[in-house]
Amino acid sequence: MRGPRYTPLVAELPSLVPFVGPETQERAKGAAFAARLGANESGYGPSPLAVKAMAEAASSCWMYGDPENFDLREALAAKHGVSRSNIVVGEGIDGLLNYLVRMMVGPGDAVVTSDGAYPTFNFHVTGFGGQLHKVPYDGNHEDPAALIAKAAEVSAKLIYLANPDNPMGSWHEAAVIQQMIDTVPDGSLLVLDEAYIELAPEGTAPAIDPADPRVIRMRTFSKGQGMAGARVGYAIAHEDLIRSFDKVRNHFGMSRIAQAGALAALADPDWITQVRAKVDASKAEIARIAQQNGLTPLPSATNFLTIDCGAGGDLARAIVRELGQRGIFIRMPFVAPHDRCIRISCGTEADHAALEAALPEALSAARASL
Amino acid sequence: MRGPRYTPLVAELPSLVPFVGPETQERAKGAAFAARLGANESGYGPSPLAVKAMAEAASSCWMYGDPENFDLREALAAKHGVSRSNIVVGEGIDGLLNYLVRMMVGPGDAVVTSDGAYPTFNFHVTGFGGQLHKVPYDGNHEDPAALIAKAAEVSAKLIYLANPDNPMGSWHEAAVIQQMIDTVPDGSLLVLDEAYIELAPEGTAPAIDPADPRVIRMRTFSKGQGMAGARVGYAIAHEDLIRSFDKVRNHFGMSRIAQAGALAALADPDWITQVRAKVDASKAEIARIAQQNGLTPLPSATNFLTIDCGAGGDLARAIVRELGQRGIFIRMPFVAPHDRCIRISCGTEADHAALEAALPEALSAARASL
């Protein structure tokens, strides 16, 4: 009994996990984190209207969700001034990236991203046999011109850029991104991940042109809308590309509860306004705590603050570890030179207090451990 | 601007949708169905404990779900007498079938199923370029020996069988399935879809042997547990195969609300006992209504009744249409000779009353339309 035969591609894939969850760490240390500030979740929660809609939908989840996501796509189309045919809804941006990469990328196909950008995108590209070409950041920013030049050089099928960026929190103005869209090489597609766009300054997102076949915009209810655990992402693109998702997507993959929650969240625009204010206040407070401890916060257009610890990756990794041991879950950029930084998600006043209490000792312990 | 370049495989795929949802039909006719009896959902709903857990989890869905599904897998392992390493949790059986097919099937690879079996499995196989070899049913039953013989003949990577079967409702005893497992050709994997197993007679499921690399068992919370819209499926298999899912799955794909609901459902075994009794009573009532109208119900080990209408597919399709126009959503097998049948899911007393009221007129209209 030799068991099943994998495809040659899958047989060679590493059992790589893009992110270890905080629950795994909690189980390992036998205690819950006091502050959960590592996954850029929103401790302010979903809109109360969304919570109410999801709680009410629980008893009707004996029904499958609408496989067309009709009502949600209608509402999203109205919000963005496009047609329903320009929108696909999926199981978070991660789920949509999987489908998108599958549609475009086969063994050996070239894909361009930044060295240190979103690892889950790379996980999908590698998972379908694509060849990743990584371009360095320009300081703390992704480098649109370099990404486009590399894409032209290698005839990339996909170009990934997040604006605002994760893990650095940096961002480009709309005109820079529009210039990038306008120079996408023929036959390439720009995957513009705008997961954090609701938290960015006005003027960060270029206008949406649903007739433009060169770009797909990825959005989510996981960040500003505080519904990471409900799993609702969507993409906006040319209708031909959107229709193609029907070839590969899990048609009945969306939770009926999540559909109800997302629809209710869209009907509560005040919530995002409140969240933006809380995020801004939290970033100011985390920046104060960082500076008080001799660390340097970087500008951020997201719901997290990336903080330069002033030395190499060993120190930052030690700080992440020592904060974890003191009940504070944070993460950090994986790739040098960004691994000189730690990344702390915005939180509540209790989170700030826990962080402020733990950081001095964690820093001392981290430095002593090197 | 020529737009993105698809893989040759995806470029050729049809934009085929395995199932049109009832909501699509409701939008088309401008009215909701009075009885929703077409998707083998459970109108008895989830366990009240599961509903409560999901309603409570709504406010904490700002957190991603545990990517390891640790607690749920622990509970499932205990229930089935296996180890956590033998269980993978995913976005319904549909989601898990996608991952499984992706791991095994590349362009031209042989896959064996029954002609008329679950279309979504075929959707995934075709979507990864596999070559489907379809074996006829033996009457109203899938034919294990013929499936195994065909798999040996074509060197199939996967063999699909549902026990109990959808769309026919038929089933095999455990010994027949164990014999099938014991004769799986070297290098093949039996995908044993047991979505309806909780509703089948004792002795339908062979014992689970987690060391056997020849079979993967697919289970779900969508049918007996009444949580179709929450999207929780799982598979039980050899730990090497289970670990391989980590290479391709959407690690953060599970809803935190669904995780909480499934865990609570497992803590309420009485609910399934009650549902089984309701399903049995409903099947008896639907059978009575069918017979009263001169139609022949087939034996069923599921939460639906497949009913022989005694003529060809044209009559059955007309009955489905005419019932739909009278507010009753049902479906039917797609493939001859099974398309002589209609398929009605179990429901509530109100559903039975609506069906009984509509069926005579729908039958007359259907016959008159031919």
TrEMBL record, chains A, B:
CDD domains: AAT_like. It holds the Pfam family Aminotran_1_2. Residues 37-351 form the Aminotransferase class I/classII large domain. The keyword Transferase applies. GO terms for molecular function: pyridoxal phosphate binding; transaminase activity. Belongs to the class-II pyridoxal-phosphate-dependent aminotransferase family. Histidinol-phosphate aminotransferase subfamily. PANTHER family: HISTIDINOL-PHOSPHATE AMINOTRANSFERASE 2, INDUCIBLE LYSINE DECARBOXYLASE. This is Pyridoxal phosphate-dependent aminotransferase.
